[in-house]
Amino acid sequence: MTRISGRPAISMEHVYGMTLRVARWHVGEAGTPLLFLNGIGADIAAAAPLLAQIAGREVWTVDMPGVGGSPDALLPYGAPTMAAVVMEIAGRLGHKALDVAGFSWGGALAQQVAIQFPGRVRRLVLMATTPTVTAPGIGWAALLDEDMLASGLKLPTATPLGLAYQTMAMAGWTSAAMLPQLRNVPVLVLMGERDGVVPACHGQAITELVDGALLEVVPGSHLFPFTHAAATAERISAFLDREPVKQPHSGRQAAA
């Protein structure tokens, strides 16, 4: 088994007929816990160099069915089902409210979680993702990502069925009609300046739909959260730790 950076606590959770491998860093830290949702076919080990560097809070993630240490799902699933699965696990871990970050495919799922479970998501970080999945299998283009080729990262780590079910879960998915509901959830959108898989215009589309959302175009291509892990972890931590900006004449909370 590949050693996972930061040596997280590993467990297996059985939810709604699925078995998912869960990794938790900094268990017991006082800050608001952060749930990270990974890209298509990517496992805990791929995300670990980033997640181990986000301090001051518990950080946790899961291998999707058929990915890494999680066995294949028996049946296909949709985005709402997987959102319910990860939030059921959050409840079991004692996390009623949490921050959520998502990368690529996981960024779409992070949007689904925030919309589907209002009041439980404090802040949202979306990386290299889109409000509308129009190209099933888009994650495969990451195999030709120039930063990934230079770094030696190997993706995906999924079974053929695992990849097929992940692709099907987001086929035709869109959050465009739902994102305006996130009025009181501060949102940070990070996009790679050389991302040929999900260009920065997708991030612009998200910020136009969410009142107060922040868009930052950062160095790197599609896999910048992994290939530029230290800088990405620092930016995520700064966003999550910053005091909210209060509007004196409005009930809305702007992204900070």
From TrEMBL:
AB hydrolase-1 domain location: 33-156
InterPro entries, per the entry: AB_hydrolase, AB_hydrolase_1, AB_hydrolase_fold
A Pfam family annotated for this UniProt entry: Abhydrolase_1
GO molecular function annotation: triacylglycerol lipase activity
Keyword set, alphabetical order: Hydrolase
SUPFAM superfamilies per UniProt: alpha/beta-Hydrolases
Keyword Hydrolase tagged: yes
Gene3D superfamilies linked to this entry: alpha/beta hydrolase (3.40.50.1820)
GO biological-process terms attached to the record: glycerolipid catabolic process
Highest taxon listed in the record's lineage: Bacteria
Keyword Hydrolase attached: yes
PANTHER family: AB HYDROLASE-1 DOMAIN-CONTAINING PROTEIN (PTHR43433:SF5), HYDROLASE, ALPHA/BETA FOLD FAMILY PROTEIN (PTHR43433)
Protein's UniProt name: Alpha/beta hydrolase
